[in-house]
Specification:
Layout lengths: L5 H21 L5 H5 L1 E2 L10 H4 L7 H22 L1 H30 L13 H6 L4 E2 L3 H14 L4 E2 L8 E2 H18 L7 H26 L9 H23 L5 H23 L6 H11 L2
Antiparallel strand pairs: 1-2, 3-4
Helix pairs in contact: 1-4, 4-5, 4-7, 4-11, 5-7, 5-9, 7-8, 7-9, 8-9, 10-11
């Protein structure tokens, strides 16, 4: 736990404590999933806080273990790249977006099942009708976790990920694409399995929109797409450092006597390495203006 970034660590702790509390209180007849889970917005039990609290409720041990393992596995990496503040914003946006899409899909399903009912009637339900909708409840951090999975695939598309039952690792971009296709297929063909597949897709959708927004904003401000749809910024920096180091070694062999100007050139790869390490540990936002300028200037050389 000591090496886990602060937001990822706290999310793991909060989810674990919430699950433990739900198990304990359930024995006393208090059901947290009914109180804090996300009900359909026209249901009698819907509360304004549920779009946030549902992310910390889970339907069982397997459910929370899968979500927390994925949060730990991919969340640590993404938080180290983006920093705590940006990672928390992204996590919450994906979770809220997942809940919004789930609500929208549920409304569409009810409307399709009752085509003869006027649209306006759904917003003027009787108390009995509103109470009947209480069973439509969504819980879990899956929407936010799927958003984190998408972010990993977009930033590190060539990184290899191991999947159970497969003997060889798979590139992250194909791993994420596979999950999107599977979730879309299940969302359309497995409506009765009790899993909110559209919420998973909703988390990915809102994550993609936010990443593209940040990416374009960074491009306008600095001229670089550092978040990027394919992690081009980090790949470019790695290639630059590697190439620059090789050139420095070659120059040392040909010209043993180093001039003052060349001494500065030899120090540059070390400075870039330190800046890249700082991004991995504390996020891009932790860089000073001078460090950002130096990073971008060097990438154009």
């Amino acid at each position: 736990m000591r090496n886990i970034p602060v937001i990822t660590k706290n999310l793991l702790i909060i989810n674990a404590l919430a699950f433990l509390a739900s198990v304990i209180f359930e024995r006393q007849g208090v059901f947290f999933n009914q109180i804090f889970g996300l009900h359909f917005f026209l249901a009698d039990n819907f509360q304004i806080y549920q779009p946030l609290t549902y992310m910390f409720m889970h339907g069982g041990m397997t459910h929370i273990l899968f979500n927390m393992f994925a949060l730990w596995m991919f969340g640590c990496v993404i938080e180290n790249v983006w920093g705590a503040r940006k990672f928390l914003i992204y996590y919450l946006v994906c979770g809220l977006g997942a809940g919004f899409i789930q609500e929208l899909v549920q409304f569409g399903e009810i409307w399709l099942q009752n085509p003869q009912v006027e649209f306006s009637h759904f917003f003027n339900l009787s108390p009995q009708e509103a109470k009947m909708l209480n069973g439509m409840t969504t819980v879990g951090a899956s929407g936010a976790v799927y958003g984190i999975l998408l972010a990993f695939g977009m930033i590190f598309p060539e990184e290899r990920v191991y999947i159970m039952l497969l003997p060889v690792p798979v590139k992250a971009k194909w791993f994420v694409s596979f999950y999107i296709v599977v979730e879309l297929f299940l969302a359309i063909n497995s409506s009765g399995d009790g899993i909110a597949h559209f919420a998973h897709l909703g988390g990915m959708l809102f994550g993609f929109i936010l990443i593209r927004y940040w990416s374009r904003k960074a491009y306008r401000e600095h001229g670089h797409n550092y978040i990027g749809k394919s992690g081009q910024f980090f790949e470019k920096m790695k290639e630059f450092v590697k190439e620059h180091q090789q050139n420095t070694i070659h120059e040392e062999v040909k010209m043993p006597e180093t001039k003052p100007k060349e001494e500065k050139k030899e120090r540059e790869p070390d400075e870039i390495d330190l800046i890249l390490d700082k991004i991995r540990k504390s996020g891009y936002s932790s860089l000073s203006e001078e460090e950002r300028k130096k990073l971008f200037d060097q990438s154009h050389k």
